[in-house]
Amino acid sequence: MSPVGLSCCSRWLSRFKTIYSRSTVVSFSSTATTTTPPNENETPSSRPAPPPIRVALTESAGRGVFATGRIGAGDTIHSAKPLVSHPSLSAINTVCYYCLKKIQTFSGSQRQGVSFCCEKCKESSKVFYDVEKKADWLDFDDYCRTEGMKYPLLVKRLACMVISGAAQANIVDILQPASLTQEMILKMEEGFRLLQSAFSKANIRKEHTSFLTKQWYTAVLARIRINAFRIDLAGGVYEDLLSLAAASVEAESAVGNAIYMLPSFYNHDCDPNTHIVWIENADAKLKALHDIEEGEELRICYIDASMSCDARQSILSQGFGFKCNCLRCLSGD
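RE: above sequence
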């Protein structure tokens, strides 16, 4: 399970002052969360070692991520590229439509339409944009904007990827779904209707959209609901966690949302030992907040840890469907 939004808090800043450590990036690579394309010139010995972690069942919280070796405070545990990402509608003219990197605009000017930060992102976006630009998304975007919904945008992008053949329709099935009430399901129907209508009006062949059923739409949205990360860019280059945390705290607003494979297996703790950060784009970095011993579970905080215990419990119960029994909550802190 993973956070809908992650906020840095002042509680962690004092801890960061005592754990300065230069980070060594360890890339995570698999068929689901590829961070770096394979290099044909690389030899097995020259490739980065896999991160010192494994996914296993926990006693009470389903799957979790555990250390397979000692991880030092401040170390970068692994990085991950998103399975699917999408910029916020409010940021769509100011960030790269593919990687969500902020794009500099000249004073007094305002870009219209989507843009890309580089040719590589423009080329990479073809996995969804070649399909997406065939349709008119005005009604769908207005629905998301009016209802204050951000996750249907991720479903739209994933659907375009499936239509283009770049993704399997069941790519997110491994992720844990949220429990949906009948009221929630009924509210999702309008988004499904608008998505289906946009593809139909664009004359996308029916055999390419056969996966797009109400059941598929609802199931994907149920998984995105509790596995999506809000992307708050820290910006710049940071050599220690203190300055990185401070930059994250000062970030003005989210530039978009994304879902990942491996980071979605991290469980929650209100006093976490691991932190997820975004520096310049939607590529996530998982960093150790303090020393982590072999066999210890790695946990992140899904919400703003500076809130009171009652507030945290309320948000976790309503937004994620569980009661937190971490040591901090049990002590009433």
